[in-house]
Amino acid sequence: MAIPAALQPGLKLPVIAAPMFLVSGPELVIAACKSGVIGTFPALNQRTTEGYSEWLDQIKAALGPDDARYGVNLIVHPTNSRLMADVQVTVQHQVPLVITSLGAVKDLVDAVHSYGGLVFHDVTTLRHAQKAAEAGVDGLILVCAGAGGHAGVRSPFALVDEVRQFFTGTIILSGCISTGRDIATAMMLGADFAYLGTRFINTTESMAPDAYKQMILESHAADITYTPAISGVPANFMTKSLIANGLDPKNLPEAKAMSLEHEARAWKDVWSAGQGVGSVKDVLPTAELVARLGREFDEAKSDFEKRFG
Ligand SMILES: Cc1cc2nc3c(=O)[nH]c(=O)nc-3n(C[C@H](O)[C@H](O)[C@H](O)COP(=O)(O)O)c2cc1C
pLDDT at position 82, please? Predict the structure, then answer.
C-alpha cells in the first residue's frame, strides 16, 4: 500500500483531480499539476486522436519536473473506435498515468508498462476489481456510492476493505470526496489517493458552462438522481438538469445500450455530478482550491490527534 515512486515528484496532497467528460481539459490539468495534485483528462474530450496528441504537447510544454504528474483516461469499450490510435499516441508521449474505464485489458497494461507508465483502473464491484488485478493494473480506483459520472453502489467502508484483502497495489478512493477532511477520511480508510471529480467542476479552469457550475451550487445530495437512462450504464445526474431537459426523474425512459457516440450528446445536455455537491459552495481557481484542501487536510489530522492521539 503506497503511492508509486513515479507519481511522487511534485505531489503535495494524495489527490487525483479525476477525469471528467466535457469538463477536464489542459487548463485544468496544468493548474492541478502546478498546485501539487495529479491532473487528468479523458482522451475523448478532444474530437480526434490528433487533437488528443496536441493537448498532450500543450500539457508537457507547460509542466516542469517540480510539478505533479498528469494522467489520461482511456475508455476501453467496443464502441470506442479510436482506442488503438489513442493508445499509440499515449505510448509515444509516455503519459505517466493511464486511467482505464469499463474494460481492463492486459495488452494495454503491457503497452503502458513498456515505457514505465502506470495503469489505474476504475471499478465499482469486487468482481471487476479482481478481473482488473488479473490484467496487471497498478492501481484500482474504487468508484463508490454517490460518485459523479458512472458510479457504483457500494459503501467505501465495504469496498476498500474487501479489495485490500487481495490487492497489494495502489488504492484510489472515489465518490463524494469534496473537502480536505474527506481526503483525510479516505486515507484513514486505507486508500492511497483520494479521487475528486465534482469538486473540480467548480473551478475557473474547468470547461463546464457557468450554468452547470451554478446548478452545482444550488444542489444537495438529495438532488442527485442515479439512473442508467441517460448513458446506458448507471450514472449520477443533477435532477434539476434532467427536468430542464424535459425528463421526468420519477419516470425515466428505458436504458439503451451504451454507445460513445450517444454519450457526447447525452452528457452535453444532462449534467452529471455526485452527491458531494452539497459541500461545494464556490467556484474558484484550482490553485486556491488545492491550497484550501491542504489546509483542511492538516486541520483534520491535528483534530484527530487531539481527540485520539
Ligand atoms: C461530469 C463528469 C464526467 C465524468 N466523466 C468521466 C470520464 O469521462 N471518464 C471517467 O473515467 N470518469 C468520469 N467521471 C467520473 C470521475 O472520474 C470520478 O470517478 C468521480 O467524479 C468521482 O466522484 P465525485 O464526483 O463524487 O468526486 C466523470 C464524473 C463527472 C462528474
Answer: 95
Answer whether 0.85 is exceeded by the pTM. Answer: yes
The alpha carbons of the chain give a radius of gyration, in whole angstroms, of 18
pLDDT of residue 266: 85
Are the beta carbons of 145 and 155 closer than 8 angstroms? yes
Closest to 141 (Cα-Cα) out of 91, 108, 100: 100
CATH number, span 5-207+283-308: 3.20.20.70
Type of residue numbered 178: S
Listed by start position, the domains of the chain span 5-207+283-308, 210-269
What's the pLDDT at 88?
97
Ligand 1: distance of its center to the CA of 173 in Å?
12
Give residues (CB < 6 A) around ligand 1. 18-21, 23, 42, 73, 99, 101, 122, 143, 147-149, 174-177, 195-198, 272-274, 276
Please tell me the least confidently modeled range out of 62-66, 120-124, 255-259.
255-259
